[in-house]
Write a structure and sequence with these properties.
The radius of gyration is 23 Å and the shape is globular. The termini are far apart. The strands form 5 sheets. The chain has a 7-stranded mixed beta sheet, sandwiched between helices. A 6-stranded mixed beta sheet has the order 10-9-8-11-12-20, sandwiched between helices. The chain is an alpha/beta fold. Strand 16 (383-386), helix 12 (393-396) and strand 17 form a beta-alpha-beta unit. The protein has helices at 54-72, 76-90, 94-105, 109-128, 166-179, 194-204, 219-228, 241-254, 277-286, 309-321, 341-356, 393-396, 412-420, 435-444, 478-485; strands spanning 16-17, 20-22, 25-27, 34-39, 44-50, 138-142, 145-153, 156-160, 183-187, 212-215, 234-238, 258-261, 267-270, 301-305, 361-364, 383-386, 403-409, 427-431, 449-452, 471-472, 486-494. The longest helix is centred in the first third of the chain and has 20 residues, at 109-128. Bound molecules: nicotinamide-adenine-dinucleotide (NAD). Nicotinamide-adenine-dinucleotide binds at residues 160-165, 169, 187, 189-190, 218-220, 223-224, 227, 238-240, 243, 246-247, 261-264, 296, 398, 400, 426, 466, 471.
Length: 497
């Protein structure tokens, strides 16, 4: 999507204008500008959201600051109870919102969007139970001094999310920030704001005005205004490493704490004893092919031991060929579309550069079809580059598409060195029956989350986050909530007086 409105036709599922939430009001942008939201399944316009700017962000921060004292001073149990009620109210809306998500970001409804919407309900229930867990401690300093700590909310949180899992990532900011007593201004991704706005409409029926404010707009307008606003006490960002660096710079200007969940180029390591069908299935899940590879944890560097390289690759190619790429709303589609034209062109450019690399071997896929039904949207088939060197650009940079690089290896120490030879450190996957090798490797990988013999998604309760340039701070858990959304205060009381 460009800064200009498109002249594309309206979608058969057109939803009209979806305003943003500031204080108690569902509102358009102060200057009346809008952004078209395009459906990547057929390049039609699904609806419009306000093109929020600095004035809108300022109003949202003022609303959040006004609501903060009352919200902070509510009983934690009452805050938690509201999230339980919101989760109950969302249940009958799940299918409608999951469909909206598939329409706007192109993920297949059966394999992705329903599960992502279910996560929102689970996430709200999980954090509702943690509202009373922001506990302090007492410190035995001296019998005549009572020294205790409190965990207090920070104030107005400014949070920014990307488009690839907008429901999940928004829920992971909204619930922990609010149950721990902060108020929030959430900036949605311009490419996928509609499903989150539908969730927020339900939240707004329960939460007091100003506690949750949601601004739509572009990163360099609404996003920059939020990270620069002096009334924001905490920044929580999920998105690319490049923008994360910028958010951190803005936080540094005012010494505002910053949590960052950023990009990845995660390794999957297949040992010689793991040349089996279930491992192939696991690596496909780990590569997040069912989300067209548009996942920060995608295991996009597949290190296969040289003794089983050809055999494993044959099985991988056969299974990927059987995946059905198609309309995200079609129940038979395993994979949907890339989110928008810009990302589609970017992934195609990576594929073209891989094909052009001397020694490249395209075992499956390649550039997308230019005619037929799949050319009507941003559809890409799974692509496998065989016998890639870890130093090639396609192995070094985050492609964020359904493209995996298979890299042969000989020696355990050497594969760990290659796996860690990246500025990213988000996730890793190890595939072997050899417990010693599995755990040696899991411990040696420089990543915030390593899975052994499974390629699943994040689970509530894990403290999830990145090493190196994949991020700072943790989410998904009680510890993540405490670290990201509370600050400690000590109180020392002299008992002699
Ligand atoms: P992006 O960084 O381009 O955009 C993310 C958000 O930041 C959007 O809302 C955007 O409008 C906003 N933004 C852009 N420029 C900004 C600026 N200057 N100031 C403030 N906000 C700004 O990322 P994307 O393309 O939307 O998402 C894909 C990236 O997100 C990938 O790198 C992926 O790995 C990462 N990601 C990380 C996680 C994680 O948990 N680690 C999860 C999902 C996605």
């Amino acid at each position: 999507m460009t800064l200009q409105q498109t002249s594309a036709p309206l979608s058969e599922h057109h939803v009209g204008d979806a305003p943003m939430l500031i204080g108690a009001a569902w509102t358009e942008a102060a200057d009346g500008r809008w952004i078209d939201v395009e459906s990547p399944r057929d390049k039609t316009v699904l609806g419009r959201v306000p093109r929020g700017g600095a004035e809108d962000v300022a109003r949202a921060v003022t609303a959040a600051a006004g609501a903060f004292p009352g919200w902070r001073d509510r009983r934690p149990k009452d805050r938690g109870d509201l999230f339980r009620q919101i989760a109950d109210a969302l249940e009958p809306e799940q299918e409608r919102i999951a469909r909206l998500l598939s329409l706007e970001n192109g993920n297949a409804i059966r394999t992705q969007s329903r599960g992502e919407m279910q996560f929102v309900v689970d996430c709200f229930r999980y954090f509702s139970g943690l509202a009373g867990e922001a506990k302090g401690e007492s410190i035995p300093l001296n019998p005549l001094v009572l020294d205790y700590s409190r965990r207090e909310p920070l104030g107005v949180v400014g949070a920014i999310v990307p488009w690839n899992a907008p429901l999940m990532l928004s829920a992971l900011k909204i619930a922990p920030a609010l149950v721990s007593g902060n108020t929030l201004v959430l900036k949605l991704a311009e490419d996928a704001p509609l499903a989150v706005l539908a969730v927020v409409q339900v939240c707004a029926r329960f939460l007091p005005p100003g506690v949750l404010n949601v601004v739509t707009g572009y990163g360099r307008e609404a996003g920059e205004a939020l990270t620069s606003h002096p009334g924001v006490a905490k920044l929580s960002f999920t998105g690319s490493t490049a923008v994360g660096r910028r958010v951190m710079e803005k936080g540094a200007e005012r010494i505002v704490p910053v949590s960052l969940e950023l990009g990845g180029k995660s390794p999957q390591i297949v040992f010689p004893d793991a040349d089996e069908n279930w491992v192939v299935d696991g690596t496909i899940a780990g590569m997040r092919f069912f989300r067209q590879g548009q996942s920060c944890t995608a295991g996009s560097r597949l290190f296969i031991h040289e003794t089983v390289f050809d055999s494993f690759l044959d099985k991988l190619v056969a299974k990927l060929k059987a995946l059905r790429v198609g309309d995200p709303l079609d129940e038979t589609s395993d994979m949907g579309t890339i989110v928008n034209g810009r990302q589609f062109d970017r992934v195609c450019e990576y594929v073209a550069s891989g094909i052009d690399h001397p020694g490249a071997d395209v075992a499956l896929g390649g550039l997308p079809p230019t005619d037929g039904p799949l050319s009507r949207g941003y559809y890409l088939k799974p692509t496998v580059f065989a016998t890639v060197d870890n130093s090639w650009r396609i192995a070094a940079e985050e492609i964020f598409g359904p493209v995996v690089c298979a890299i042969p290896w000989k020696d355990e120490e050497d594969v760990v060195r290659m796996a860690n030879d990246t500025h990213y450190g988000l996730a890793g996957f190890v595939w072997t029956h050899d417990l010693g090798a599995a755990l040696r490797t899991a411990h040696a990988l420089e990543a915030g989350w390593v899975q052994v013999n499974q390629g699943g998604g994040q689970v509530l309760g894990q403290s999830y986050g990145g090493f190196k340039q994949s991020g700072i701070g943790r989410e998904f858990s009680l510890e993540g909530m405490l670290d990201s959304y509370t600050q400690r205060k000590h109180v020392s009381v002299n008992l002699e007086r």
